[in-house]
Design brief:
The complex is a heterotrimer of chains A (about 200), B (about 100) and C (about 250). By secondary structure, chain A is mainly beta. Helix content of chain A is about 5%, strand content about 30%. The radius of gyration of chain C is 18 Å and the shape is globular. The chains are: A mainly beta (about 200), B mainly beta (about 100), C alpha/beta (about 250).
């Protein structure tokens, strides 16, 4: 038995309905969510790596990473906690650029971050201009609370896939669950199909 | 006599499991796998947000993960691998 | 009071709003009538669930502000967060007679009964006073003489929740002392403290560590972090400093 709370609507801005996946509502601010304390890695200690099932692992220092060609993009983002934010403006390095010249038969990727966070994605979803390692938001360096110095950005999937404080991609032949996926979050996480939990 | 004749079905542990998992557990004490500190669950650090399916309980000393809970899709899943052990007081014997 | 021998699985139950009391311009108390309330310990909380007509559900936790000694009557005190989702509904829409779904009591760590003894050091920031008020009320209901001190930080005098009741209880000779501090301005003639709670204030007002006070600290995360660290730095046993953080985001 559910009791209806007369007159209760919740904080749900469903304007721009066509751009909102099912169950999402609009926010104007940028909520901060994290599964742990915010890591504070110095840029001089920072690196980004492509590891795992590759012929030759690659790694970049911050300086090398920042000398790669960059792209600016504007995308809608969707969090599994039901908020969506429209037209967020980012600058980053396309994952296509990072994977240039990488020989692999892998079909899956584990993104890994400072603070031991991981999340799994199909390699296909990280290529073809659909994913970036972003280092700037709204024209300013990405703040630590939002994943700075750099985070993965895969806007077409729920935001837990866009690993904050990302430090590399491990290529895998078989799909393996990352941090949240191990405990029941969906392996793929398409907001338009409302894939929140395994089995959805 | 070897262990195949001594071991029981898991059913037989039902009483202990109920002693363990029915009580209020924020007052339960546990030992962190990462740093070995002992404390009540309610004293640790929790990372949880409105409408979030998942919650992460971390050690207040080393921020290592103690427990992860995910609710949704008709079930609650819990992992306790960050705890060496978890302890609740035994119910007092009836007077 | 002994720990309840039988523990039940948490189930949602339907309470009715019996009365609403405006405590401050931003804070309202809801007196709820809860049939078959199993009783609680001071400091515990309940989950409140609201369901919209289309099935959308929002859940939040609220501390119980009433003493366990009030039977089936339960008081929740709610601060309105302006862009919040649940608190504006609870503080502005809900009327006497309306049903509310809740489950509880929940929690056992941040709880106190007179048998736990003292001296009792209560430190509150803003609406963090709510679970501590349940302890104060429980102490009074049991005519306990456990020495107790409440150090209570509010923005202004108008933001002080339960002000009259605290004034009364603080002067009733039962061994409860109430100390207010105001962080965002104070009225003319204010003789109380007027700064954030800091180590100096705690050194002056907390019992010395040798007395082994039992401390309960509740409020916004930054206040709780700084008070708990300061108490430990002053030599208090970390296991006797219990905290409840409200977190950074309102609701």
């Amino acid at each position: 038995m559910r009791i209806i709370s007369r007159g209760f609507r919740g904080r749900r801005d469903r304007t721009e309905g066509g751009r909102l996946p099912p169950g999402q509502y609009l926010v104007r601010d940028f909520p901060v969510l994290s599964a742990g304390p915010t890591p504070r890695t110095k840029l001089t200690d920072w690196s980004f790596s492509i590891t795992g099932e590759v012929d030759e692992p690659k790694t970049w220092t911050w300086e090398q990473f920042r000398s790669l060609p960059t792209e600016t993009l504007t995308r809608d983002i969707h969090c599994v906690t039901k908020w969506s934010k429209l037209d967020t403006a980012w600058e980053g390095v396309s994952v296509d650029t990072l994977l240039e010249g990488v020989e692999t038969a892998a079909e899956y990727v584990m993104a890994f971050s400072d603070g031991d966070y991981t999340t799994n994605l199909p390699l296909e979803d990280l290529t073809g201009g659909r994913a970036w390692v972003a280092f700037a938001y709204d024209g300013a360096p990405l703040e630590p609370q939002h994943g700075g110095p750099a985070r993965l950005l895969v806007p077409h999937l729920y935001l837990w896939k866009s690993a904050k404080w990302v430090r590399g991609l491990r290529l895998m032949n078989d799909d393996e669950p990352g941090f949240w996926e191990t405990y029941g979050y969906h392996m793929y996480g398409d907001p338009w199909r409302e894939q929140r939990y395994s089995g959805d | 006599m070897d262990e195949t004749e001594l071991r029981l079905d898991g059913n037989a542990v039902a009483g202990i499991l109920q002693e363990m998992f029915v009580p209020e557990l924020t007052a339960a004490r546990g030992r962190c796998v990462g740093c070995g500190e002992v404390g009540e669950m309610g004293a640790q650090h929790l990372y949880m947000y409105p409408h979030a399916p998942g919650a992460v309980l971390r050690c207040r000393f080393c921020e290592g993960v103690l427990a992860v809970m995910v609710r949704g899709g008709g079930r609650v899943r819990m992992a306790l691998h960050g705890l060496v052990w978890l302890e609740v007081p035994q119910p007092a014997a009836p007077a | 009071m002994a720990r309840a021998a039988i523990q039940r699985r948490l189930t949602w139950r339907v309470a009715r709003v019996a009365e609403v009391v405006d405590e401050t311009p931003r804070v309202r108390s809801l007196a709820l009538s809860v049939p078959d309330w199993p009783g609680h310990r001071a400091g515990q909380h309940v989950d409140v669930r609201l369901t919209a007509e289309d099935g959308y559900v929002a859940e939040r936790s609220y501390s119980i502000a009433s003493a366990p000694d009030d039977g089936e009557r339960l008081m929740l005190t709610v601060e309105r967060i302006d862009d919040g989702e649940v608190s504006p509904y609870l503080t502005e829409e809900l009327q006497p007679g309306d049903p509310v779904e809740l489950r509880g009591p929940i929690g056992g760590y941040f709880a106190w009964t007179v048998d736990d003894g003292g001296p009792l050091l209560l430190v509150a920031g803003g609406s963090g006073v709510c679970p501590l008020m349940a302890m104060i009320r429980h102490r009074a209901a049991r005519a306990s003489m456990v020495p107790a001190r409440l150090l209570y930080s509010s923005r202004t005098l108008d933001d002080v929740i339960y002000r009259d009741e605290l004034d009364r209880d603080g002067g009733d000779g039962s061994g409860l002392e109430v100390v207010h501090t105001l962080t965002r301005g104070h009225p003319p003639g204010w003789t109380g403290r007027s700064r954030r709670i800091d180590a100096e204030m705690l050194a002056e007002l907390a019992w010395p560590p040798e007395r082994r006070p039992l401390a309960y600290v509740c409020g916004p995360t930054p206040l709780v972090e700084s008070v708990a660290s300061a108490l430990v730095a002053l030599g208090h046993d970390p296991d006797r400093v219990r905290t409840e953080r409200f977190g950074p985001t309102g609701n």
